[in-house]
């Protein structure tokens, strides 16, 4: 019996029997591997998974109380916030901006690997860390300005 493995982003899952694989979030772009297969291959290119992919597509139309169980995948790659992350790193807060850059760099590679959820998550993380970096830079700038005004006031006014 074939045992399947699948990958999402940098994570690999498995082994799964064909029956168990039906319960996993396999999409057409999900990379699949099993013993005897030379390379990781998108699920849509493996004939034996056509039925599984067809049933996953049917399940996407099932609606729960919260909405669709498996919402359709976006057709456009999410914004990666790379430029914003780089600018925030240069002008604001180095450590937090670097985390933003790392996550921004993951967006395109996850998208190209068919890991849509991973790309969306990386984009959200990039936005979050870039925002934290900008806020930290503003707070530090305001504190520095207050310090400068207070110290300049003491120097001019003859304090200390």
Notes on the protein architecture:
The protein is α+β, with helices and mostly antiparallel strands and 160 residues long. The protein folds into two domains: 4-68, no CATH class; 82-157. Helix content is 53%, strand content 13%. The chain has five helices and six strands; from the N terminus they run ββαββαββααα. The protein has a four-stranded antiparallel sheet. The chain has a two-stranded antiparallel sheet with strand order 5-6. A hairpin with a 2-residue loop joins strand 1 (4-8) and strand 2. The radius of gyration is 24 Å and the shape is rod-shaped.
Précis, in short:
The protein is 53% helix and 13% strand.
Number of strands: 6
- The succession of helices and strands, N to C, reads EEHEEHEEHHH
Secondary structural class: alpha+beta
- Global outline: rod-shaped
Strand percentage lies at 5-15%
Q: Could you tell me how far the N terminus lies from the C terminus, measured between alpha carbons in angstroms?
A: 83 Å
Annotation field: number of helices: 5
How many domain regions? 2
- Sheet having the most strands: 4 strands, antiparallel
The percent range for helix content is: 40-55%
Instruction: Please tell me the overall pLDDT.
Output: 82
Low-confidence stretches: 58-71
Question: In angstroms, what is the radius of gyration?
Answer: 24 Å
Spatial strand arrangement across the major sheet: 2-1-3-4
